[in-house]
Structures are given as structure tokens and as C-alpha cells.
Amino acid sequence: MAVYTDVDPDDLAALVARYDIGTLLSCKGIAEGVENSNFLLETTGGRFILTLYEKRVSEGDLPFFVDLLAHLSEKHCPVPAMIRDRGGDAIQRISGRAACIIQFLSGISLTHPSPAQCASAGAALGAMHRAVADFGGTRANSMGREHWREVASATGNLDVVIPGLQAVVDAELDLLDREWPSDLPKHVIHADLFPDNVLMLGDRVTGLIDFYFAATDFRAYDVAVTHASWTFSDDGRNCNLARAGALMRGYAEEICLTDMEVAALPLLARGAALRFLLTRAHDWVHTPADALVTRKDPAPFLARLRRYQAEDAAELFVGI
Ligand SMILES: Nc1ncnc2c1ncn2[C@@H]1O[C@H](COP(=O)(O)OP(=O)(O)OP(=O)(O)O)[C@@H](O)[C@H]1O
Ligand SMILES: N[C@@H](CCO)C(=O)O
């Protein structure tokens, strides 16, 4: 359960009183997620999400996220609004953390999406990419390739997490330094569009959430992150070609990737697998013992990395 920081009931009631969202009825910690502390608020005005920003979100970036969500909402992407208080402020402080009250969206996050649901997720990602085309904000990718060595070093000896992991990561970091592309189309991307960050009802996407890694980077890297998180078996060993093909087809309904982007997808997916392998390994070692959080297993992302390293990896990105 991702609650790193508790909220005092009186402070919370005072925070809610700044808004036109009714009076507080209840507040419950939310089980999912690993990055931030999230609570479901019920007020006489309805349901809301309260997010307290933790380790990987800097307060200075919050105005960028507020603007990005407002832009995407104007373009009819199904993203939650960060609600403003009566004074017009969306960014607050509580329990020593920056915090926002966010619109609650209906829908369910899937654990085992069908091909049709993968196609919808791919199309929603593509529609989001079209919608950001005229967004003026930029943000350097704090979890982008240039930062993966820091995450690896901050973890300590990776062999403690998985025997033999240090050598695999060192070799992969060297290869990605040499071969990472420099001139693919770039704009603001989500960068973490896992199934738990997409809300769905049936095959319909009702919400894209958790934009706190959104940053300016290759749009094809966003496709690679989404591919890595939507199309594999739980242990990361097998890519489901029906899901993968549907995801790529859904995306292609909105965006036609260039030949250079398509050719780069296996390498970008190696990067995506490494990014989540590293952050999960880091958190495996460094999550505070008293935090109410279920750590995520790094091993399935090592398995994905191995699959993307295979010579036939390009076949995993063919739309059907
Ligand atoms: N706007 C929303 N509407 C409905 N539910 C939401 C909303 N925002 C968050 N949630 C719920 O809270 C959970 C955790 O939110 P979120 O994914 O933002 O947390 P996180 O700690 O940043 O997670 P992650 O580990 O994916 O980075 C989601 O899986 C979802 O169940
Ligand atoms: N979506 C990520 C957490 C955000 O870094 C994961 O599942 O590892």
C-alpha cells in the first residue's frame, strides 16, 4: 500500500475547506502505486484523490504537470484535473509534503489486458501524443537514459538484488551509451504508461493517470515503455504477440512512426526494460521498512530485457 506519509485529520479537513468540493466524509489510503502517497477522499461533493508527492517528484515540477493535464484535458484526453482551491492554487502543502487534490476518474486498472484492451491503450497513447503536439511546456527526463547510471550506483551492489545482475547492467549501460539514438521525434511523453496507470471500462479507456514522470523525450521511447508493460507474461519471459500486435496497431491508428523510429524500437525497449529494472532494484534495497508499500519485483524486467536483446526482437513490434 503506497502510503509513506500520514495525514493528520485536522490538517486534512482544513485543506479540504480551502476548496469548493464539499466537506470531508472519509479518507482512505490507496493500495496501489509505489511512488507517491495516495488517498481516496470522499466529501459531500463526491470522490477525489489526494496525492502527497514523495521521493521522485520535485515540487518545482508540479506546475508543469498541472499545465500538462489542463492542456490534455482541453484536447479531450481522459486525464484527471488537478483541482484548484478558491484562490486558484492547485499545489498545496500537507504533512510537510507538496500535495494536490485530483479529480477522481472511474475505471479499473487491468492486470491481464486482452488484445482489444491493448489496442485501446495504444490508441490512447497515440491520441495523447497528438494532443501534446502544441503543448508549450518542456521538462528534462529525470528518469531518462542519462540518469540510469546514477540509479544503478545509488542502489549499491546489484548482485544483492539478483545474482549476476551487476555485470548485465554494466554491459547494457555501455551498449546503450554507444547506440542510443539522438535524432528521433521528441515531445512531452508519459514515460510510465503501465496498465496500472490506465483506467478502463470494458475495452474503453476512461483515464490516463500518474503523469509524474512525463518529460520531453522520444515519442518512440513512450511506445517502448508501453510495449514493455502491456504485452508480457507476469514473469516477463514471454511477449504475447496478439497483445503486442494490437498495441502497435492501436497506436498506428493515431500516429505513423517513421522508419527510423520503428528500427529503433528494440533498442528503446531495452532501455525501457533497464529503466524499470533499475528503479525497482533501487527500491527493493532502499524502501523504508515502515512504509506501507508493496515493493515491485525487479526480476520480470530483467526477463524483458533479455527478450528485447534477442536477435528477433523487431518481430515483437509488428502491428496486427
Ligand atoms: N485520478 C484518479 N482517479 C481514480 N483513481 C486514481 C486516480 N489517481 C490515482 N488513482 C488510484 O490510485 C492508484 C495509485 O495512483 P498512482 O498510479 O498515481 O500512484 P503512484 O504511486 O504514482 O504509482 P506508480 O507506482 O504507478 O508510479 C492508482 O492505481 C489508482 O487506483
Ligand atoms: N511503473 C513503475 C513504477 C514507477 O517508476 C514500475 O512498475 O516499476
From TrEMBL:
<comment type="pathway">
    <text>Amino-acid biosynthesis; L-threonine biosynthesis; L-threonine from L-aspartate: step 4/5.</text>
</comment>
<comment type="similarity">
    <text>Belongs to the pseudomonas-type ThrB family.</text>
</comment>
<dbReference type="InterPro" id="IPR005280">
    <property type="entry name" value="Homoserine_kinase_II"/>
</dbReference>
<dbReference type="InterPro" id="IPR002575">
    <property type="entry name" value="Aminoglycoside_PTrfase"/>
</dbReference>
<dbReference type="GO" id="GO:0004413">
    <property type="term" value="F:homoserine kinase activity"/>
</dbReference>
<keyword id="KW-0067">ATP-binding</keyword>
<protein>
    <recommendedName>
        <fullName>Homoserine kinase</fullName>
        <ecNumber>2.7.1.39</ecNumber>
    </recommendedName>
</protein>
<dbReference type="InterPro" id="IPR011009">
    <property type="entry name" value="Kinase-like_dom_sf"/>
</dbReference>
<dbReference type="InterPro" id="IPR050249">
    <property type="entry name" value="Pseudomonas-type_ThrB"/>
</dbReference>
<feature type="domain" description="Aminoglycoside phosphotransferase">
    <location>
        <begin position="27"/>
        <end position="236"/>
    </location>
</feature>
<keyword id="KW-0418">Kinase</keyword>
<dbReference type="Pfam" id="PF01636">
    <property type="entry name" value="APH"/>
</dbReference>
<keyword id="KW-0547">Nucleotide-binding</keyword>
<keyword id="KW-0028">Amino-acid biosynthesis</keyword>
<keyword id="KW-0808">Transferase</keyword>
<keyword id="KW-0791">Threonine biosynthesis</keyword>
